[in-house]
Specification:
By secondary structure, this protein is an alpha/beta fold. It has a single domain, classed as Hypothetical Protein Aq_1857, Chain: A. Helices cover 15% and strands 42% of the residues. It has 2 helices and 9 strands. A hairpin with a 6-residue loop joins β8 and β9.
Length: 117
């Protein structure tokens, strides 16, 4: 479904430790919004919904809602560190367009809900 690189897994596990709360999972999803119509969401969640897909990456529990799953199919999430700091990158082979700032996108099947920049 999706790929999370070793460096991204390591960083997410560090962030989980900083949260100091047991039972958290990484929730990855897509919601309507942004210049191009769809935006990524990534955060920690205690709950797993009935229709969530549950994934495991080297002990990291990840949940993806059923609506986001097709849009995230084939996505690669990486974490890159450079002199300016670090950050997560998302490569989505399903995206056919993205906004100039790179924070939103759309796919051939899902135009989302574009907003003003």
């Amino acid at each position: 479904m999706l790929t999370i690189t070793e460096s991204a897994i390591a960083r997410i596990k560090e962030m989980l430790k900083e949260e100091e709360e047991q039972g958290l999972k990484l929730r990855i999803g897509v919601k309507g919004g942004g210049c191009s119509g769809l935006s990524y969401g990534m955060g920690f969640d205690k709950e797993k919904q009935e229709d969530d897909k549950k994934l495991n990456y080297d002990g990291l529990e990840v949940v993806v809602d059923a609506e986001s799953a097709p849009v995230l199919d084939g996505v690669v999430i990486d974490y890159k560190q450079n002199m300016m700091g670090g950050g997560f990158t998302i490569e989505n082979p399903n995206a056919i367009a993205s906004c100039g700032c790179g924070s939103s996108f759309r796919t051939a099947e899902n135009a989302g809900k574009p907003e003003e920049c």
